[in-house]
Amino acid sequence: MAGRIASGKPQDGDPAEEDRNGAPAQQKAGSAASDTAAATAPGLRAGLRAARTAMGPAARAAADARLAQSLAIWTDAWLANRRARGLTRHAVAAFWPIGSEPDLRGLYTHLASLDGVTLALPVVARQAAPLLFRRWSAGGPMASGAYGIPEPDGDAVPAPDLVLVPLLGFTDEADRIGYGGGYYDRTLADWRARGLTVTTIGVAYACGRLAPGTHAPEPHDVRLDAVATDAGWVPTAPPVPPAG
After folding, report:
1. Where exactly are the structural domains of the chain?
2. In this predicted model, what pLDDT tens digit does every residue of 17-64 receive, in sequence order?
3. Are 221 and 185 in contact (CB under 8 A)?
4. Which of 28, 38, 48, 241 could form a disulfide with 169 if both were Cys (CB 3.0 to 4.6 A apart)?
5. Is the four-CA dihedral 126, 130, 135, 140 of positive or negative sign?
6. Exposed, middle or buried by CB within 10 Å (0-12, 13-18, 19+), for 228?
7. Which DSSP category does 15 fall into?
């Protein structure tokens, strides 16, 4: 990793906003099979970014609070049911906010403080490969990653039980439009190919919701279990596994 950096969130217009995990505003040449780029025009991504930025800092802060509350309620129930089934270790993967993305670091601090919970953040170890995840703790050391996004220096964590996935846009069926780099699609596909059960929840503002027919997912795209937004869940909150 590169040298130590401050753990602050890049502001609107920061290059990282246009290049999360190697995804520029327009799809890079030679990667049309990755993420949803083959079915998504660059103009759609640009429009989604513009809608998110247009919310303004105050509106985003209020939306972040609603998102964090909704996710906290659901994750509390998710953890309670896992513990009722005798599970004592719970790995949750999240993402470090950049630019105008939802900032849920308060929720991360809460989750990381709970007994048996490991909070992890993604790390780009190799280009065009699935993501790795490393343990994160509030105030812990961070370093600039492959694309200038802060990454933790903690120990590597196996595939998580729950992953909060960043996105630009989403459909009513919880299909995700990412940034074009394909890292999350490769990661989700890798877990599925290995037979791992990972609950996947997209995190987005309601302005990222696409009208029906706007986006058609590619065959390789992996649908999320649900998307949490400041206006509610899409399509609905994923069911919590029953106790017992």
Report:
1. 27-234
2. 445 655 443 333 233 333 334 344 678 899 999 999 999 999 999 999
3. yes
4. 48
5. positive
6. buried
7. G
What CA–CA distance (Å, rounded) separates 134 from 18? 23
Q: Which value, to the nearest 10 degrees, does the dihedral of the CA atoms of residues 76, 78, 84, 90 take?
A: -90
CA angle, residues 129, 107, 4, in degrees to nearest 5: 55
Closest by alpha carbon to 209, among 191, 227, 194?
A: 227
What's the pTM value of the predicted model, to 2 decimals?
A: 0.84
Mean local confidence (pLDDT), 64-71: 98
Residue type, 38: A
Among candidates 80, 115, 75, 76, which has minimal Cα distance to 243? 80
d(C-alpha 172, C-alpha 204), whole Å: 13
CA distance 39 to 168: 14
160-184: per-residue pLDDT in tens?
A: 999 999 999 999 999 999 988 889 9
Q: Single out the residue of 77, 78, 83, 84 nearest to residue 244, CA to CA.
A: 84
The beta strands (E) that lie in the chain are given as 90-93, 117-123, 132-135, 142-144, 150-152, 156-157, 162-166, 169-170, 176-177, 199-203, 226-229, 232-234
Q: Which CATH class is domain 27-234?
A: alpha beta
3-state secondary structure of 162: strand
